[in-house]
Amino acid sequence: MSYYEPLVYMVPPEEEGFILKTVLQKRLMVSRKLLSRIKLTEQGITVNGVRQYINIKVKAGDRVEIRMEEEASEDILPQDLPLHILHEDEHLLILAKDAGIIVHPTHGHYVNTIANGVVYHWQQAGITCRFRPVHRLDQETSGVLAIAKTPYVHQQISEQMIQHQVKKEYLAFVWGRFEEAKGTINEPIDRDPEQPHVRIVTPEGYSAVTHYEVVEQYAQAALVRIWLETGRTHQIRVHMRHLGHPLIGDKMYTLPEFETSPAAEEAGKRLNRQALHAFRLGFVHPGTREWTEFNAPLPADLAGLQAWLQKND
């Protein structure tokens, strides 16, 4: 049986006599589900190199280690695809995702996804990991994508997301002129009953909160920075449409006044997707316990759109 590198915790003097289970859950922040899983393996939980039950008391200076079995995504076909790696360590792989590529294989779409490329990359590097993206990006959205290498790392970042402690910032090019330079959209979102694949703002929907700030205002459009408190499907696209500022290139959530305008036609020649880019992702790194941020530069298609908008301002 092979394991990932252990997570280590040295018991300080003030925690002398703590129950091992308390140390694992309150200091290493191991979830109940993961704890139930690792305690069944031979080297899952050790104190000073010896396997232990979780109800023992620890002593100052004890070396507590947890180990997880190595896993592989055997159902994902390895495929040599270009990956824009921003950072990689034993815990995480951070990518700058291109627009137009799906993150995970779906029914009828088993190849040419981020997952296929990552599995191939790990295979070539001799790394055994299961593909675990910690968040989602729409197919046509570019930007920072984080992939966990172990169940523990995935659980840690997922918990931060639940507690709204993860910073996710986007750049979007939207239509129209803003009267307010910044604001908050607090409108519930749910499926459109007539088009289940489309989301709408509705009083019966789920809570959704989006903050925005205008970065550059152009003659007929704007570049806005957006950050989220919630993570509803299509949230940014739905909220910006509701505000009267749909994303440039977003065919699903456009508005009639922008759909056939001369500016929309010109923008369509430069962009074949919605103008949305996840440019910053920040969280407490599960390995170092330090705040970490990753940034993805504006891709060429959006940089070209920005240059055109500036020129025609």
Automatic annotation (TrEMBL):
Keyword Isomerase (UniProt): yes
Pseudouridine synthase RsuA/RluA-like domain residues: 91-242
GO molecular function per UniProt: isomerase activity
EC assignment: 5.4.99.-
InterPro entries linked: PsdUridine_synth_cat_dom_sf, PsdUridine_synth_RluC/D, PsdUridine_synth_RsuA/RluA, RluA_PseudoU_synthase
Keyword Isomerase: yes
SUPFAM superfamilies from the UniProt entry: Pseudouridine synthase (SSF55120)
Keywords for the protein's UniProt record, in alphabetical order: Isomerase, RNA-binding
Reactions catalysed according to its record: a uridine in RNA = a pseudouridine in RNA
Biological role stated in the UniProt entry: Responsible for synthesis of pseudouridine from uracil.
NCBIfam families tied to this protein: rluA_subfam
Similarity remark: Belongs to the pseudouridine synthase RluA family.
Name of the protein described by the UniProt record: Pseudouridine synthase
The species this protein was found in: Paenibacillus violae
